[in-house]
Amino acid sequence: MFIPLHDANTLKHIKVQWVTLALIALNVAVWLFTSLESEQAAQATTVGLGYIPAVAFGQAQLAEGLDIVPEPLTYLTYAFVHSGFWHLASNMVFLWVFGDNVEDAMGHMRFLVFYLLCAAAGALCHGLLTTTPEAPLVGASGAISGVVAAYVMLHPRVRVWVLVFFRVPLPLPAFVPLLLWIGQQFFMLAFAPDADVSWGAHVGGILAGAVLILALRRRGVPLFDREIVTPRAVRNEAGVGTAVAAGTDGRIERLPWGRDRR
C-alpha cells in the first residue's frame, strides 16, 4: 500500500536511537549470514530459529540437530530471521522511520523490552490463529507492527512522507497511512487468514504495542500529540531546552524537555 520515507519528528529525550540502530544491524547481519549459507543450511537455520506453533505447543518435535536454541526463545529469535531481501528491507524501513521516536518516548532499555514483547505477542497470536502450525514463522513484522501502533498513538499528527502505491511521494499526517495500514491487517486477518503473510502476527504486535506504550512511555510523554511543538518554539536557557506549545484549549504552556536536538 505504501512505504514510509521520512518523518518530520525530531528526538527530544535521547541523542541517538542506539537500540533501533542495533536492531537493524542485527537483522541485517542475520540475513547476510543466512544468505551466504547453502540452501539446505539456510532452511535449517529458518527451522531452528523460526517460531513453529506445533513445536511451541508440544504437538511436534524438531528433528535432532535443528534445535538451535531452546524452544521458548523462538518466540524472539524468529523476529531476526527473514525469508529474503525485500522481506528484510520492508521491515527495516518501517523500523528506521518510526522506531527512533518510539525509542525516544521510552528510553533505550524500555524500548528494547517493548520490541521483544511485541515480537513475542506476534508469535503467540500467530500460533493461536494459524491454519499451518507446522510451518516456521520468520520476520520482524510482529515487532514492527507494535512500533507502528505505538507511533500512531504518540504522534498521529506528525507529517510523514510516504510512497503511495510505491510510486507517488506524499506528505501526510501519520494517522492517515498508519491507521489505514493497521485496518488492513485486521481486514486481511478476517478475510484472508490462509495467506502466506501472517496477519495474525501483525495483529498480535499491534495489540501489544497499543497496550505497552501506555505503560512504558516516559513520565510526562503525552499521547496523541496533545501539545504541538515546532522547532522555532524551542529555546535553550542555561543548557536546558524549553518549548512553548499550544495546548488543546489554545492556551500557551511551557514544557521542560531537557536538552533538545534541533
Overview of this protein structure:
The longest helix has 22 residues, at 85-106. This protein has two domains: 2-216, Rhomboid-like (Rhomboid-like fold), CATH 1.20.1540; 227-262, no CATH class. The strands form two sheets. It has a three-stranded antiparallel beta sheet with strand order 1-2-3. It is globular, with a radius of gyration of 20 Å. The two termini are 32 Å apart. α1 (18-36) packs antiparallel against α5 (85-106) and α7 (141-154) packs across α8. It has helices spanning 18-36, 39-49, 53-56, 74-77, 85-106, 108-129, 141-154, 175-191, 199-216; strands at residues 2-7, 159-164, 168-173, 234-237, 240-246, 252-258. By secondary structure, it is an alpha+beta fold.
Average pLDDT, to the nearest integer? 86
User: How many helical stretches?
Assistant: 9
Strand content: 5-15%
Q: What ranges have pLDDT less than 50 throughout 5 or more consecutive residues? A: 227-262
Approximate shape:
globular
Q: Into which percent range does the helicity of residues fall?
A: 40-55%
Q: How are the strands ordered across the major sheet?
A: 1-2-3
The CATH topology assignment of the largest domain is: Rhomboid-like fold
| CATH level-two architecture of the largest domain | Up-down Bundle
> Structural class, judged by helices and strands?
alpha+beta
CATH class of the largest domain: Mainly Alpha
Radius of gyration: 20 Å
Task: Please tally the β strands and state the result.
Answer: 6
Distance between the termini: 32 Å
Note the run of SSEs as H and E.
EHHHHHHHEEHHEEE
